[in-house]
Amino acid sequence: MLDDDYLPIEPIQKYLRYLDSLEKSPNTVRVYANNLKLFWEFLRDKQIDWKEINLEQLSDFIHWLRSPEPGVVSIQPQVSKRSEKTINHALTTVCGFYEFHERLGATEGVNAYRYQMQPGRKYKPFLHHISKGKEVKTRLLKIKEPKTFPGCLTSEQVKELVNACKRIRDKFIICLLYETGMRIGELLGLRHEDIRSQGVNEIHVIPRTDNINISRAKAGFERVIHVSKDLMKLYSNYLIEEYPDDIDCDYVFVNCWDGEIGQPMDYGAVNGLFKRLAKKTGIQATPHLLRHTHATELIRSGWDMAYVQKRLGHANIQTTINTYVHLTDDDLQKEYQKYLTKRDGFNES
Q1: Which residues contact 331 (CB under 8 A, 6 or more apart)?
Q2: Which of 66, 218, 276, 310 is catalytic?
Q3: What are the start-end ranges of the H helices in the chain?
Q4: Which of 101, 171, 216, 314 is catalytic?
Q5: pLDDT tens per residue, the chain (349 residues)?
Q6: How many CB atoms are located within 10 Å of the residue 153 CB?
Q7: Treating both helix axes as pointing N-terminal to C-terminal, what angle do 10-21 and 84-104 enclose, rounded to 10 degrees?
Q8: Is 235 a catalytic residue?
Q9: Quick count: other Cβ atoms within 10 Å of Cβ 15?
């Protein structure tokens, strides 16, 4: 991060080094750096010293992020330049930045938080009886995000994507994401030792911080995902037919035809695969959409939410509920028909 004189912005550099020391993923640090870059541009435009900003001025940052062209006032309705989620993430970054420097004594910080009683939830965490009477810290500056359903792929669409792949490796990527709901960072960090097929068919998702393709497993704990024999067969076919010979690499997904052969695939390579498939099939799929599809299918099939949480690698079951429980009109109709069938059976008896 450089200022107008091409010199490092030391307060930002310190905070980014702190995040790196906490072993935050490189992608996360990059996003935080971009958010702070925007904030520094805001401070420059408003001629505000970063150490002297107050809550009211910080709230202006929201309007600055929303404005398509800062400094231009239009009498016509304007479409926000950034989504509510993007703005909230930028605010989270800035508040964390000030908390860090307040602890260092560099600034008095910004009073951007309040304390309130924890709202009631259907699923209570462990030791809830101890903490339920305590106030929790919440951020004052936070805008309401519209709840949107990213959608799900049908089984026919997934088959179309798989059939559009020319290579076994690419078919394996699609099938693995669809059948396990793994995150893309978890997939790219897979080693051969993580795939177990002796007596059981399972994949061990292991957090690592030394992946040379900068991939990271978001969850900080290991978990096991059980998979089908067909998926394991696809893995074996990939190793036999396409995996490069005589390479010193233990990563499952490597460059087989493009780039440096034998080196681990990166995020760009997988995104490129999905872009090519979108051109061939017209299906705008992403790795995370396959994760949504897998989770939704589990929930619709009647899986207990605690099992879905464990399989997806969420630390909090509320995250699973808020992110993946999306009931469509068809879902409601089916459940209502089940209700009618049970009710009619009761009346007949």
Answers
A1: 300
A2: 218
A3: 10-21, 26-46, 55-66, 84-104, 128-131, 155-164, 168-180, 184-188, 229-241, 267-281, 287-300, 305-312, 317-324, 329-348
A4: 314
A5: 666 666 788 999 999 999 988 888 888 899 999 999 999 999 999 999 998 888 888 889 999 998 755 555 555 555 567 888 899 999 999 999 998 998 888 887 677 665 555 555 555 555 555 555 566 666 677 878 776 666 789 999 999 999 999 999 999 999 999 999 999 999 999 999 999 988 789 999 999 888 888 888 877 789 999 999 999 999 999 999 999 988 889 999 999 998 899 999 999 999 999 999 999 999 999 999 999 899 888 888 888 888 888 999 887 877 777 776 665 666 667 777 877 787 766 555 5
A6: 22
A7: 100
A8: no
A9: 24
Look up 288 and say whether it is catalytic.
Answer: yes
Choose the catalytic residue: 288, 334, 342, 343: 288
129 phi, psi to nearest 5 deg: -65, -20
Among this protein's residues, is 292 annotated catalytic?
no
Active site residue 103: no
Minimal CA–CA distance to 143: which of 58, 39, 32? 58
* Catalytic one of 291, 292, 294, 311: 291
Q: Which residue is catalytic, options 169, 183, 216, 294?
A: 183
In the residue annotation, 128 being an active-site residue is answered as: no
Q: Provide φ and ψ at 101, rounded to 5°.
A: -75, -25
Q: Are 294 and 174 in contact (CB under 8 A)?
A: no
314 catalytic? Reply is yes
Amino acid at position 174, single letter = I
Inter-residue contact 217 to 239 (CB < 8 Å): no
The answer to whether 228 and 201 are in contact (CB under 8 A) is yes
Helix (H, G, I), strand (E, B) or coil at 116: strand
